[in-house]
Design a protein that fits this description.
Elements (H helix, E strand, L loop, with lengths): L4 E5 L4 H13 L2 E8 L6 H16 L1 H4 L2 E8 L1 H6 L25 H16 L3 E3 L15 H15 L4 E3 L7 H23 L10 E2 L2 E2 L5 H13 L5 H4 L3
Parallel strand pairs: 1-2, 1-4, 2-3, 4-5
Antiparallel strand pairs: 6-7
Length: 240
Amino acid sequence: MNEGDAIVLFSGGQDSTTCLAWALERFERIETVGFDYGQRHRIELDTRPVILEAVRNGFPRWASKLGVDHMIDLSVLGQVSETSLTRDVEISMQQNGLPNTFVPGRNLLFMTFAATIAYRRGAKHIVTGVCETDFSGYPDCRDDTMKALQLALNLGMDTRFVIHTPLMWIDKAETWRLSRDLGGDALVDLIREESHTCYQGDRTPHEWGRGCGTCPACDLRAKGYLRFKGEPSSEARDPK
């Protein structure tokens, strides 16, 4: 058990909800922060208060630890970004090898604002759901990026933040398992029913959760859920 307070970057998605539970198991007091950057799947912001309220009501051992929720307006990021998450364009791969769902500077800004809140609130720990295993090639999700950010933020603010990335080296199936280990089937069900990951902002229900079922985020989440449940993948059912 780590002592102290933590700021959790909380989007309302599967990964950040799992990270919220992870932090609630470890720290004395948790505050959450979300960002409105003009994302096309802005509906994720509507899921945040629903999940937070469900955590308060459904998980008594965590309820007393869950504190203030901060919402930061970063609409300027959407104004300067030409990506499929901030513009109504088709999701595709770019010539540089990155998907156009990559929003340059997004996590760098997110972490800087989270650290600014942590500084003001006296919190030492910052928790984020970035991951190298299932990260779609985003360079701002890499472990090296987070280590560099921790150094830069600590130097720039003359403090000793610790950035925690509990999902960094696990895949989506393991993320589902972690949520079950942390909060049992109740947390898994909450993530399935309320969290939002779909890039299209679609809330169509599926066994693995809500989404369009075809975008990269839905595909990753659905395949991870199938592995988590021990079901054969589509490749196993239809070998080529």
